[in-house]
Protein: Serine hydrolase
Amino acid sequence: MVRRIQSHAQSCRTSRKHARPVGAAMKRRNHAIVIIVMALLAALALGSGCLYMLYAHDSANHNQPPASSAAGTRESAEQHAQSDQDTAETSRSDTLDRDAVPSPNATLQKASNRIHAVQSAVDSAARSNGGTWSVYVEDLATGAIVNVNDQPMVAASEIKLYVMLAVQDGIEQGTLNTGGQDIDMLMNQMITVSSNAATNQLVLMLGDGDMATGMQRVTQTAARYGFRDSRQLRALADAGTDGTGTENWTSAADCGRFLKELYQGKLVSEQASRSMLDLLLGQTRRAKIPAGVPNGIQVANKTGELSGVENDAAIIWGKDVSGGDHDYVMVVMTSGVVSSTAQQQIAALSAQVYESMTS
Structure:
């Protein structure tokens, strides 16, 4: 029994000796596993970082255009910076001065303000000045119109606009029998110095030698071009009337539309429009509408005068203070007025309209 107990004790000691090496091996194995896991984690982290860097580099390449050289890249950057600077300067300029580059709404608002100011000035003149006033103003850029007291008025020498039209139309159609006369000279005299004799010669030419036929042709040509208030019913006389009480007629609106279409090159033909416009630019009678605009401003006009009648029809090539263009048509027709006073009143109204149209 004692021997078995001793043998068992010896066996247990032997087992404990063998057990100690096994525990150490387990520890070493566990430590190796930990190291391997950590190495794997480190490798994963490193791989993720590399992938991120590759992705970032690829994204950068997509977001930037390829450059052939460093100099090209710098040049592009400098141009972009200059563009940004120019944009900023333009924005500051617009903020300080909206007239520099007006927005469409601002432009429309200014145009509306201008035409309202013209309307006010014309209404006031028509009410306060003596006699009957009919006034037409059109902004040639926007087509906005002021048309006060629109009615047929005594034409006086404004009828010569429609004689000029009929002559140019006859030339264009090849139906005008000149009889060997100098049309250019007669037209120049009729418009620039308002010669009644030259006008009557041209009307006779239009009627193949018959005055009544010629006057009818003037009226029919005017109507064909849409000027239905304009009628020549008598010859022109240096005394002002032919003694019959018959008058020639037109309206401020007819004259205004005539001048607008002339300005646009739409009357008869572009070449004919230019020829007629050149005649009006040579006008020598400048005491009414032209007298109200600043020196150096171009005006093409045709006046008309009879006893108690003062008329003027004009194209004005207006300029604002910054040099911007503001072209417009202005026509004033009056009756029952004192001539010297009416001329001054027309010039004063012209000055008001010019200021309003170019502000």
